[in-house]
Amino acid sequence: MAERPSRRTDPLDGQAALVTGASSGIGAEIARVLAEDGADVAVAARRTDELEALAEDIREEYGAGVEVVPTDVTDSDAVAALVEATVERFGRLDIAVCNAGLAVDEPVADLTDEEYGLMRGVNVDGMFYTAREAIPHLTETAGHLVFMGSMSGNHPRPANPVYAATKWWTRGFAISLQASLGEDDVAVSTVNPTEVRTEFGSESGTPSKDAFEPGEVTEAIEVADAVAYMVRQESPNSITSLDLYRRDKLSHF
């Protein structure tokens, strides 16, 4: 009978992570829980002030090393600089969380080229650039690549077909990477939440944190805990996909 692994207090001690879209919401909570689990963290997003405030909180609460790297994930050079800065600061990269994403809630017939390009740039190009730059380092550490998916990538969502399509792309990309990177001992995972109460949606209207009352839908910390659970898994096993449903919302899909 295999020996049961011990439960470690700091399961990510000695590891280095980067998180995109970390200035608020799910990304900020992911950075916090990874630091709580012992990892040093590079936080990336476009809003520098929010990143600096998050970094100060993490340093004070968890004593973790934090690198602030303002980054536009639609810029491939900026993403390359993000990964380089992370490795230069911490000497390694064990976890890359591709979390940056946005949605513009307009019918396809009303969607402008700019709005379409913005969703594609962040949700598709940004995911690709981050994965491409992170993979060479993750192969050195038997690391973990995590994508923020959505239940919109599992089920048809007539309200926002373009956003849903970007999440179907994310799911397909992740599944293919699982097959291509497994022999390099790199884990690839996707977490797929339903509605989450964050600033998401503010690009085109009311952010979800204002549309829902606390406790009405999933909270950002709950998604972050799911990500932490996935990256705690040790080789050779990994959780390839985790669908985070609220029990009372299952009938909506």
From TrEMBL:
One of its GO terms (molecular function) is oxidoreductase activity. Pfam families: adh_short. One of its GO terms (cellular component) is membrane. This is SDR family oxidoreductase. CDD domains: SDR_c. It comes from the Archaea. Belongs to the short-chain dehydrogenases/reductases (SDR) family. InterPro entries: NAD(P)-bd_dom_sf (IPR036291), SDR_fam (IPR002347). Keywords: Oxidoreductase.
